[in-house]
Design brief:
333 residues, alpha/beta, Rossmann fold, Dihydrodipicolinate Reductase, domain 2, 2 domains, six-stranded parallel β-sheet, six-stranded mixed β-sheet, 30% helix, binds ligand 3JN
Length: 333
């Protein structure tokens, strides 16, 4: 089997998960380069039983690299174009290029065909967008979508490794009656909720909310789908959840919707009210599928449905989706 030289740029929560997923899915990795800022350079990391030393990223880091997986953050703006110039295909986890009309924004279960027209960079959507569009796609194909109203319940792992430590530390502090010191988040996150992810924009939405609005339209290839979002950080370690209200363009019964979702790629329906079966972040942790449950009619609009959508934000919301894109890329190379 042909092998591909891979670089991973960034060694935080998503960078580590990329290594795990490449190994699990047996991606045909030839040479592997681990790149990061000078702060992490020199650290050693294991991949498939071998030890690799992290190098500092420079514009010249990418010669001979076939696939460069950027784990997010400012490195994308700084180095993605250098990687393309060196001949690599970049798969980028940051928001830098997502809305660029020359850059496909891909969720393999939804718009795999879009990988074919890239010009060197393919963007991985925001974690909250990915799991929502996977669940919307079968409904969109069957009945069209007029409007989506979503509220998210986002785990701290989405904000990185330091945020996970902050929830651990603050949980202990609260239970020990100690003062809580926020560092990553602007307020206490333990035993609290923050209706605030990323920066506030001029329209009073947060940037995370507008990512969900704009990215959903681009991935579905349909600007007419109205989306409005409220994104909330919750004291969960890993696994994002979403309450999704969908107004379809024509009637779909609940049983038809469940059947479509059951048959759709990458989805597991967990929905049995008698058995108290519904998706939860602790069950989605470590899994690659998107879990959908609480599927029910919304009688307040003509063709309304409500559902509850849960996924591992570091896996399907980031690393797994990026590696799935890489798998599509090498099929087309
Ligand atoms: O907080 C989350 O749950 C997801 C965070 C995503 C994120 C955090 C910082 C910068 C992004 C993203 O992927 O959209 C970015 C960004 O690249 O803008």
């Amino acid at each position: 089997m042909k092998k591909y030289n891979v670089a991973i740029v960034g060694t935080g929560a998503v960078g580590n998960k990329l290594l795990e997923v490449l190994e699990e899915r047996n991606f045909p990795v030839g040479n592997l380069k681990l790149l990061a800022t000078s702060r992490s350079a020199g650290k050693q990391v294991e991949f498939k039983g071998e030890i690799y030393t992290i190098e500092e990223t420079t514009p010249n880091s990418f010669s001979g690299v076939d696939i460069a997986l950027f784990a997010g953050g400012s490195a994308s703006k700084q180095f993605a174009r250098d990687a393309v110039k060196a001949g690599a295909v970049v798969i980028d986890n940051s928001s830098t290029f997502r809305m660029d009309p020359d850059v496909p924004l891909v969720v393999p279960e939804v718009n795999p065909e879009d990988v074919t027209w890239h010009k060197g960079i393919i963007a991985n959507p925001n974690c909250s967008t990915i799991q929502m569009v996977v669940a919307l796609k079968p409904l969109y194909d069957a009945a069209g979508i007029k409007r989506v109203v979503v509220a998210t319940y986002q785990a701290v792992s989405g904000a990185g490794a330091e945020a996970i430590k902050e929830l651990e530390r603050q949980s202990r502090q609260v239970l020990n009656n100690e003062n809580v010191s926020p560092e990553v988040f602007p307020y206490q996150i333990a035993f609290n909720l923050l209706p605030h992810l990323d920066v506030f924009l001029d329209n009073d939405y947060t940037k995370e909310e507008m990512k969900m609005v704009n990215e959903t339209k681009k991935i579905l290839g349909d600007d007419s789908v109205a989306v409005t979002a409220t994104t909330v950080r919750v004291p969960v370690f890993n696994g994002h959840s979403e309450a999704v209200n969908v107004e379809l363009k024509k009637e779909l019964s609940v049983s038809e919707a469940k059947e479509l979702l059951r048959k759709a790629p990458g989805i597991v329906v967990v929905d049995d009210s008698e058995k108290l079966a519904y998706p939860m972040p602790v069950d989605a942790d470590g899994r690659d599928e998107v879990f959908v449950g609480r599927i029910r009619k919304d009688d307040t609009v003509p063709y309304g449905l409500n559902m509850w959508v849960v996924a591992d934000n570091l896996r399907k919301g980031a690393a797994t989706n990026a590696v799935q894109i890489a798998e599509l890329v090498i099929k087309n190379l």
